[in-house]
Design a protein that fits this description.
Blueprint: E1 2-4, H1 15-26, H2 47-53, E2 71-73, E3 117-119, E4 127-131, E5 137-141, H3 152-161, E6 181-189, E7 194-198, E8 200-201, E9 211-215, H4 226-230, H5 239-242, E10 246-250, H6 258-267, E11 272-276, E12 286-288, E13 292-295, H7 297-309, E14 314-317, E15 321-324, E16 331-332, E17 359-362, E18 381-384, H8 387-404, H9 410-419, E19 432-433, H10 441-444, H11 451-454, E20 459-460, H12 465-475, H13 479-486, E21 509-514, E22 521-529, E23 535-542, E24 547-552, E25 555-558, E26 564-573, E27 579-588, E28 593-602
Parallel strand pairs: 8-12, 9-10, 10-11, 11-13, 16-19, 21-28
Antiparallel strand pairs: 1-2, 1-3, 4-5, 6-7, 6-14, 6-15, 9-14, 17-18, 20-22, 22-26, 23-25, 23-27, 24-26, 27-28
Amino acid sequence: MLLRGSVPCLQRMKLQYYLIELILKTGHDEVVSIFPDPVLQLHTTRSWDFLEAASGIQSNYEYQNISSDAIIGVIDTGIWPESPSFKDDGIGEIPSRWKGVCMEGSDFKKSSCNRKIIGARYYGIKEFSVQSKSNSNKTHRMTGSPRDFDGHGTHTASTAAGATVGNASYYGLARASSIDRDFKSTILLGNGKIFQGSGISLSNLTRSKTYPITFGEEVASEFTPFSEARNCFPGSLNSRKVEGKIIVCTSTDPSIPRAIKKLVVEDDKAKGLVLIDEAEKDLPFDSGIFPFSEVGNIVGSQILNYINSTKNPTATILPTTETRRFKPAPIVAYFSSRGPGWLTQNILKPDVMAPGVAILAATIPNKEEGSVPNGRKPSQFALRSGTSMACPHVSGAAAFIKSVHHRWSSAMIKSALMTTATVSNNIGRPLTNSSNHTSNPHEIGAGEINPLKALDPGLVFETTPIDYLNFFCYYGISQKKIRVISKTNFSCPKHSSEDRISDINYPSISIGKLDRNQGAKIVRRTVTNVGSPNALYVSSVDAPPGLVVKIYPTKIAFSKDSRRASFRVLFQSKEASRGYNFGAITLSDDRHVVRIVFAVNIE
């Protein structure tokens, strides 16, 4: 589907004032006049506020949002057009350059599109013929629709480009709050001990009544291995022994996901589930109205010790409560993609990180039994986690920048997001992962996106089509195939090898192999000045011990007539530790800080 209105709802600044100030300070001669666009709103989740807070930019000015004709294309499971996130109130006419369609389906009409959902299409064979043995053709029809019946596409689309919805929440959880939040499902044991587990549970259990609590292996079905009962395998538990109890399960076998474990004990009429899972304990699972709480190994062992210490262990699980202004935040989720890159280690991956845990956004109304609290209507919003939730944040941020800088290429926008990314958390320390260790660029890339800072990055790296074609050459793709792909007479450089991929004009640097006994490695970069016409950037290096990193020249000057400049970076190691070494190069003037992350593998 295609949506417009992609400017995130960044609060507490008057963006019009900021942009006017920016343009005046950068001295664009071609600017004749400046006037504010009509006000628009965006976003059903406040994770954008958390990203703004990380920018460190403060102002007393208030603003709503500038209008935008940016268009975001979402390839996903479809869209639920009735969601309030896709209302087009206050949005102007569809951009004249839009030439797409609103494809009708069995349950999706042209009227389902509007000035927010400007186009929709489903992909599949609508009609095909099959020849039978009698040589007669039979025509078969397939029905399809852009309508979403999974909720995934609706969630991602509303994150990237959804309209503002007042008091949006998931049954009261995550209400207009920031991404620095946590969802706790409290476990009360019969001995008075209290543990804060993770989970999104809308149960009606209270402190006033407790229930027997037991370990899965203690209620195993006959002839079932205890290892399966501990993990709550389907069919592994004795339903007669499970009924009326809170069951404790482990997650030592990853083949059985949490949703299945929950269904296993729920179908056996248990009163609740406590799951011991170190890996996923910080990723809240939505169990609907069924009592659920997830803990790590340390808390889990204490709960099991209590169960083994008394003849009649009891417990209860309270409904989920929201903890706001949680610290530290953000952290790298366990499910986040890690580097180094599989295709080549001479380009740093990942590029950046973005919010992806417990993101509130639109969904299809879930009417399944056990998902809606008594007396409530199905929620139009849901809390979801995953890289799928992080991706639309980056898409929305890119469209936000494009709406301000109409002429910037995708590469310039990507560069702006990378070189201005945040590398510290909300307590001012380096970003950490789910194991509470300091994260490295193979986990966070350049850092977490900072859309507001990315509006004014100072310098950008323009990765051109030639860079991408050179990549194919360096990677070993034949020139003949490259010409077919590019439909040009492109010629590969004379000396093409994989280590030259490091020279592609990317906003970060990665060297997949640096032999400490074979001298220095030099990589080259070219930057484009998009800030003040007359600027002087001074370089500095943050490198690990034993790795020599030098920049030539150390100072880069720009003028009105010279907006591009090249520089070289020398890497040499005779004493650095083997394996990957990480650091950063910084180019700064009196206003901008351009940070280029590097990763060097010492052999």
